[in-house]
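fyi for ur records
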Amino acid sequence: MGFLKNRYAQILTLALVAQAVLFYGLSHGENVPLVRPLDAFPAALGDWTMVQAGVMDKGDMEALRADDAVVRTYMQGSNHQIASLFVAYFKSQRTGQTPHSPKNCMPGNGWSPTESGTVSFSVPGEPRPIEVNRYIVNRGDQASAVLYWYQTNRRVIASEYRAKIYSVVDAMRYNRTDTALVRVVVPIQTDSASATNAAILFIQALFEPLRHYLPS
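which gave:
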């Protein structure tokens, strides 16, 4: 039981217990807003243009358990930089439909993290900088910068722990547990700093349009 002495383990345990009580013991008709389908997300984002639309087969969608998802690859016209976008939207987390953390699923696909942390930057429409997760991953001779976060109608969250806590808070206050996982991957061509900067530029281009496809 030594792990329970860890502060983050304690917070996560309390959040999961509260989540179980609220989601299953007090479950009632949840206020699930209408959203636009993610496959209608724009093909052009500033100077970024979609060059490939990914397809998730039925098996992948069943494993993901998301209500909607989109996979896209964009290219920046000025320097041909590539950025991959993945968005998964969950209408409710009451029945166990929760986002899978990229830091857990990417190693399962053969990617090994070499750096981890967070990065903060300004985005259109937000009065304060947002904070997102940043991972540098490697597979063979390939390397990529991965930036991801959890997004609700009220906040952008980097921490998985805080995302679970806020889902409990929103369930109590607003009768809503909907959320989205947003992930951006940029291949490292020269160095991780340049790839991270390219990912930030891409996020700044997509952030405001994405608001129109996630619940308000």
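Residues 2-211 form one domain. thats all i got for now
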